[in-house]
Amino acid sequence: MPLDNHAEFRLSITKALGDQLAAALEALTPAPLTEENINSLPRHKGVYQLYQHGEPVYIGKAEVALGQRLRKHLKKLSGRMNIQLEWMSFKALSVDEDFAAVAPEKLLIDKFQEDGQAPWNENGFGINDPGVERDTTVFGEDHFDQIYPANLNWVIRDLPQGPQSLRAVLKFAKATLPYTFRYAYYRTNRESFYDQFEVAIGQSEMTANEFFRFVSSQLPEEWQIMVLPGYAVMYPRELRSRSARKHYIAGQEIAEYWFKCDDCDGTGTVNVPDGPDDSVAVPVKCPDCNGIGAWEGEEGDEGKGYVRVPN
Predict the structure, then answer these.
(1) Residue 247 covered by a domain
(2) pTM score > 0.85 for this model?
(3) Residues 95 and 71 in one domain
(4) Beta carbons within 10 angstroms of residue 296's beta carbon
(5) Which 3 state secondary structure label does DSSP give 36?
(6) How confident is the model at residue 147 (pLDDT cuts 50, 70, 90)?
(7) Is 206 helix (H, G, I), strand (E, B) or coil?
């Protein structure tokens, strides 16, 4: 039986802090996401919001300096398709160092996601290099990298010209590209492997697409560059992923398509050289029943199936 002289009281300090943080951000005016506005920020730790078309899409924290973190986002977004930097703006709050222990960005994420906001906090935007174990992951249609894939027409400027080692060229591109370019040995003492390849660059600018094709032409044929939705990798082995957009092998651009065997329903992949023709037919072999056939379709298709022919 309820008592008239007793009740339960629950104090939610975290909810109160989340409400205060949200109110403090609400009082601010979003500024365009530009280098100039980022440079105007104090070198403080804190939390920030990214806005697209005036709607909050991402909440993050800066453990070193707000400007450092926002500058990384600016660079990343500059190299994506289907988005323009003019659409982006931000707000930022300096947060007391002791306050960081309560994870202020988590409080804000919970607060805004209650209203269906901050979708980029759930779709992979904040991930840097996902690591080699994720290279075969099938990216969902709502993943950030699928919605805003890496722009292969992004221009690498001020390339070092003249004869030089491939190692120097790779390090320059890795630091310049606005998305991850991971390649074998770059973090080990075997990075000197690339010193044996002397290359000569005769132009100061290349698109990422041209650069990957150039690099693949300088390496033995077992080396492959695979472009995934949001980044690129390069290793001396066959690279396969259902999410792959393109491969570069020995200077050729090759698109990878999946097919389904009409005879046994087995699935596999086929590499289709990119070319000027609108349609292509490539011989394939079903990995399940070993039937020989051909992948037929147009470049850009997922695949038109697998046609069985007599062995």
Answers:
(1) no
(2) no
(3) yes
(4) 17
(5) helix
(6) very high
(7) strand
* Cβ contacts of 2 within 8 Å, gap of 6 or more: none
**What does residue 297 show for φ and ψ, rounded to 5 degrees?**
170, -170
Identify the DSSP state of 24.
Answer: H
Counted domains in the chain: 3
- Strand-strand pairing, 232-235 and 224-227: antiparallel
Same structural domain for residues 153 and 213?
yes
Residue 50 structure tokens: 């990214």
Integer Cα distance of 109 and 160 in angstroms: 43
Residue pair 195/214 in contact (Cβ under 8 Å)? The answer is: no
Nearest-10 crossing angle of helices 104-113, 13-26: 80
How is residue 142 annotated by DSSP? Answer: T
Domain of 268, in residue numbers = 254-311
Q: What is the pLDDT of residues 214-244, one digit of tens each?
A: 999 999 999 999 999 999 999 999 898 888 8
Q: Is residue 90 part of a domain?
A: yes
249: Cβ contacts below 8 Å, ≥ 6 apart: 216, 221, 223, 224, 225, 271
Q: In 79-207, which residue ranges form alpha helices assigned H by DSSP? A: 104-113, 144-147, 166-176
